C-alpha cells in the first residue's frame, strides 16, 4: 500500500443542503444535482455525499481517509435526527441507499446498494412501520441480493436462479405475485447462498453494511466494466466517484407506490411531450434492469393524477433551470412524489441537433451554446445510411426505438460470442432478454443491440444512446432463449445464432435477413439533393442546416479536402470544402499508367527516361486540368509523387518465380531477368523509410520537373480559358532544407519556362509536408524555402512513435487500448503530448522565420473532432480530410472557435 496522502483539513462529506450543480468535480454529477434540486425546494429525500476526494485517497492508498468515518457519523447522526429514526434500529429503522455518482454519467457501470439497514431484527420493525409484511421481506431479499453481488462478490445468477425457483414453486411469473411467506423463505435461501459463496454470514450490523457498501462503490470505480466504459467514452481514469447516502423512499409499498424514469423531451427524437417509463409497486433498479415491462409515463396520469401533475411541473422547472433535456428518476411512496436524481440526459444524434435549435427558439440558450450542445461524432452518425423502407424484407417484430441507426449482423446471444465473432471480422447483433452492465464489452463489439424487455430508460437503451449504438428494446413479440442460443419470432420461425437479422433503431422494426440501405437525408442535404420527404427528416435537416450555418460563421479554421480526381473534388465542394489540401499524385499513376512509371524507375539510359517522362506529361496535365476546373477559384495543393518504391515495382517473389520457371523451361527471359536484377538492386527492407518522396525526385532526374510542368501548363490553360486556378505545389518527405532548396530551384525554372511559353503569369506557391521529426525540429530553417507547411500527421505519428501503422494496429494496439496505455489510437486522434508538441513547435518556428507562412494539416487527423480542436489551438490555417468528413470538420472548427473554458458538454 502507498502512503495515505490525505489532504489536510479537507472536508470529505457534504449534506445535500450544502452543494450545488456546479460542484460536479467534488460531489459527482448525482450528488451535485441532488443538492441543486434540494436548493430548488423540490422533494428530495434527505441525505449526504462523500466526495470524489475521499475516493481518490482510498484508491491511491487502499485506505479511507482517517477523518472520513467521523464525518460520516456526524452526518448520519444529523440525518437520523431529522428523520426521527435510527439506522437499522429494530422498532423504527432508518434505511438508506448507497449509490455511486461520478462527474460524468456512467449508467450502470458502478455499484449501488439499496435498503441498507435491514437485518433479521429491523425487518420486523419495517413491516410494522409500513403495515405490510410482504413489502418488508421483499426489501430485505433485495438488500441481500444486491449486497451479496455488489459488496461480497457472489455470482448474481445464483440469486436469480433462486428467485426463479421460488416463482416456479408458486406457479407465478412475476416477483410481485410472491407473498410474504414466500419472500421470507427466499431471504433464508439468499443468506445461505451468501454464507456458502462469500464464506461469511450476511452482516446484521447496519453500520457495517453501510461502511462495506461505501468501500464497494469506491472499488467499483476501477471495476472492469467501469474502466471499459471510460475508455469507450474517453472519460479520464483519475476522477474517482462520489458516494451518495440517501434516506430510502419505497416504490414497492403496493399499487399506490411505484418508480419511474422521465425525460423532459424524447431522448430519441428530441420532440417535446411526455416521455418515460413507470412501474407500479417496484424499486428503481427494476425499471433500469428491464426485468419487468413498464407502462408509458403518460399512464401515470390515470394511476395517480396528483403525483403526475406535480411531476410535470417539476420537469418544467428542471428543464428551464438546466436549460437542457433532463433525465429524471423518481419514486412515489403511497402517493408522495420523491425526486431521486436528475441529470442532463443522454440523447441520440438527431435529438441533440433538434433540441439545440428548439432551445434557441425558446430563448433558453443562444447560438453559441447550441453549437456546444452538438458534436462532430453526432453529425457523423446522422450521415450513416438508413434502411430502405421500400425493400421487400420480412418484418417480424417491432420494439421501442431506443437509439437510431440501421444495423445488420449475425444474431449472437451473449457478450463473449459478440466480442469473439467481431474480432474475427463478423458483424453481429447482440440479442438479449435485457442487458446488464456485464454486457458492456459485447455491446461495444456489436453493430446493434436487440432486447425483448425494457424501454427507453432500460440499461440497453441508456448505454446504447450514450455510445451512439443502434438499439431496439422491449420487442415483446420475440421469445429470446439465451441458453439455447435462439430467438423465436411471431409465427414460430426460429432465428438461430449466426442467422442474419436487421434492426432499425429509428422505427423499432426488426427484420429477418439483410435490409438494403439508402443515403441519409443529411448526406443528401450536404450534397444539395435533399428532396421533400418525411416531415421528421425535413425537421432534422433544418436543425443541422441552422447549426452548420452558425459554425461556418464562427470558425477560423478553413476546411479542405483530400481528393485525387475531379469526381472526388466536386463531391468535396458540395460538402463545403474550401479547396483541396492534399492531392496524392501517386494515385494517378496506378492502373494503366503503372507500366510507364515502372519503365521510368528502371530506365538505364537518359533516352529511356525521357521517353517515359514524355509519355507521362500529357496524362498528368489532363489530370490537373480536370482538377483545377472542378475546384476553380479554390486552392489545390498538389503533392508530388510520394509512393514507397515497391508500389510501382513487380513483386520480387512473383518475379523470381517467373524467371525460375522460364529458365527451367529454357524459354527466353532476358527482359524478366533484367527486371529482376533491377528489383533486387532497389529492394528495401522498410520501403516506408526508404526511397520515396523528395528522395525519389532527387534520384530520378526529371520526375518532379515533369510533374511541376504538368501543373504549370494545366494552370496556364485554365487561366487562359478565363478560369481561376490556384495551384500549390507540395514537396513530400523533406527532412532538411537543402532537399527543398534543390527541388524548388528546379521547379521555379520550369514555372518560368511555362510562363514564357504561354504568356501567362502564374502564382504557384511551393511548400512542403512536415511528416518527419527532423523536419519539425528544423522547421525554422525549412520555412526559408517554403511558403506553406502541411503537416502529414499519419507519417509523423509513425515516425514519432516508431510504428508501422499497417502492422501494429493488427498486432498489439488492442492490448495497448485494453491496458490503458492508449486512451485512443494515436492514428485516430492526435497524440497531443508527442506528435502534437512537434506540430506546435514547427508551427511556431516556421512563423518566426516567415510570419505569413500558411499552415495546414492533411493527415486523417484533419477530420477527427478532438484533433480539430487541437489544430485550432495551435493556430493552423486549415485542416484537410476525406470528403465525407468535411461537415464534421466544419462543425468542430466552429465549436473550437466558440468553446468556452470549463464547459462540460458530454
Automatic annotation (TrEMBL):
Cofactor(s), names only, from the UniProt record: Mg(2+)
EC number: 2.7.9.1
Domain PEP-utilising enzyme C-terminal as annotated: residue spans: 542-894
Positions annotated to bind substrate: 584, 639, 771, 792-795
Record domain Pyruvate phosphate dikinase AMP/ATP-binding: where: 63-293, 299-350
Any single Pfam family the record assigns to this protein: PPDK_N
Transmembrane segments: none
Top-rank taxon: Bacteria
Protein name: Pyruvate, phosphate dikinase
Species name: Streptomyces roseochromogenus subsp. oscitans DS 12.976
